[in-house]
Amino acid sequence: MAETFKGKIDVDIRDSVPDWLPFEPAKAPEGAPSVVYVVLDDVGFSAMASYGGPIETPNIDRVVNAGVRYTQWHTTALCSPTRSCLLTGRNHTRNSMACITEAASGFPNASGVIPPENGQLQEILGARGWNTYMVGKWHLCPDAEMNLASTRRNWPTGRGFERFYGFLGAETNQWYPELVYDSHPVDPPRTPDEGYHLTEDLTDKALEFIKDAKVLAPDKPFFLYYAPGACHAPHHAPREWIDRFKGRFDMGYEALREQTLARQKEMGIVPSDTELPPVNPIGTPEARTGPNGEPFPALDYARPWDSLSADEQRLFCRMAEVYAGFLGHADAQIGRLLDYLEETGQRENTIVVVVSDNGASGEGGPNGSVNENKMFNGMPDDLQENLAMLDELGGPKTYNHYPTGWAMAFNTPFKMWKRYEFNGGTSDACIISWPKGIEAKGEVREQYHHAVDLVPTILDALGVEPPETLGGHVQSRFDGVSMRYSFDNPSLPSARATQFFSMLGSRGIWHRGWKAVTTHPTISGWGQFGQDTWELYHTDVDRSERHDLAEQEPDRLRELVNLWYAEAGANGAFPLDDRGALEIILTPRPVLSPPRDRYVYYPGVADVPECRRSTSATGPMPSARSSTSTCPARTACSSHTARASAAMRCTSRTTGCTTCTASSAASSRRSCPTRRSRRAMT
Ligand SMILES: [Ca+2]
């Protein structure tokens, strides 16, 4: 808020009195805490040992042991939408993030552009005297603005972060990332042969940013948004980290669920009578079709472990070991951040929040993939080919993702996974510690909360009033409420009464301990939302959504479904979009410059984004279903890295991978006209 000049202005400066106040930057209150958000990606509710899971994260445990962890904290079921909630305190549809930015559809609920009236935490804190830094995954910028000719209004530096080092899209190769530093792309400082991994690089930069300012202003607090690629696909981790988990998943994913649930009960993470739901709770391609006979989504089911061949079990186990190594390695990097804060005496007065943005991912399908770009190019994975790559999994030659069975196991005790509004998609880890401000140490909290609650919580803890205007924009109301009351009060009732969910055709509503949820498959193209089956669960006692009470309590179900429509309307959630992936990808969207006949490339310029579909956003949309590609070549290399695959898609080659040599991944970056290998549904 601008201050009025209170000095005196005369003709001669000697007769005038200055007043610096209107011109000085804001200063945070003395002793104001710093804030660190650690936002993990696609880490399911039960992946970490602190939530009963199989993967030890001793450094995140340092946060757990110094604070509280929530067992009924929720997110949207997807990346960009949750990230918008974490930074704005508003629901995803009000943030125009009904889905990921790549799936923007040109409606107020899904433009991929967060409205300025929904100010972001870094914008608020930056204006109040905090330094603001971000490293890692952004995913809050529309496709058409992710290039060097575009406005930077929706880049991290355009939305309040003073410094940024990371990637703009949904995912990136952890060995050869597509890095942006503030406002332009840069190359990684090292190669994998020289010991490079993205999570380490991001952590180096986070420490550098903090130290750069602490040298000059040791008392100035900061907000760090630390968002590693871990553990979104591609699952890439140093070999020694993967090998630490060798043999740890040999029991298979169904047995892992049982072991995890037993630990969760012992730890008080879930009620002691919680039961595991069946595998494939909403159907399989064999057992269910849509209202007009449409197929069930081909990849959204899990194969029973005992139906797998020994070779398949061996391959699938290694895929889980790679994921565990990826998370364990990220945890070690988080440890470096904590070490620094402790060694410099800052930890006591730093609020550290660790969350995941959604449940574990089912995008690997029932068989997983050694190179998920194959799936995106319509090429099925081949078991023998994949087995031959077993020792390479997680390394620079793969772009891998585990099968759905592990997603289910890492979401224990819940149903389904990322994209779905069952708790498997939306119930996530949330750990908050602030040694100076929270007395509780290592305690569990059961109050029901959501990603939209974090911004009000942080502002409450910092004593910062939400601004009425920000950058000239009158600010809208928060959907979230502060969780601070629960820090030291395990028995107070939830401050939340209602939370609505909507993602890719899957819908749910929680209200005072009860939840209604549809069985509508996401990305199914089924439509006909009025015909959806709604199930009813008493989640206060039935966290795993095991006992459907729809028949016993039809009035309560009707009330909740009506409430869903009311909340969806109030949150601008319509239209609903459950279209298939291809149709979503091929939706006409704004383009920076119209298609033309001649493209001129100069040597030495920055990398150029993927070529675009030659349909303008305002023009007709001819046969989206039959159109096959934005590029003349879609066939990806079956065994090479995504970098090479990306190159394949954007050159005029039609088949085969001519860049596929052992050393080509790095060199192809300069010859490839693309830096990006984004996927559709991440
Ligand atoms: Ca995610």
Description:
It is globular, with a radius of gyration of 25 Å. The protein has helices at 58-65, 79-88, 121-127, 198-216, 239-243, 253-267, 310-343, 372-376, 383-388, 404-410, 423-426, 454-462, 554-570, 581-585, 642-650, 664-671, and strands spanning 34-40, 67-74, 131-137, 163-167, 179-181, 184-186, 222-227, 350-356, 427-433, 443-445, 449-450, 469-470, 473-474, 498-503, 506-511, 514-518, 534-537. A hairpin with a 2-residue loop joins strand 15 (506-511) and strand 16 (514-518). The protein has 682 residues and is an alpha/beta fold. It has 16 helices and 17 strands. The strands form three sheets. Strands 1, 2, 3, 4, 5, 6, 7, 8, 9, 10 and 11 form an eleven-stranded mixed beta sheet that branches. The chain has a four-stranded antiparallel beta sheet with strand order 14-15-16-17, covered by helices on one side. The structure holds calcium ion (CA). The site of calcium ion (CA) has 6 residues, from loops.
Instruction: Give the helix tally.
Output: 16
Ions and ligands? calcium ion
- Average per-residue pLDDT, rounded, comes to 90
**Tertiary shape:** globular
Q: In terms of structural class, how would the helical and strand content be classed?
A: alpha/beta
Largest sheet: 11 strands, mixed
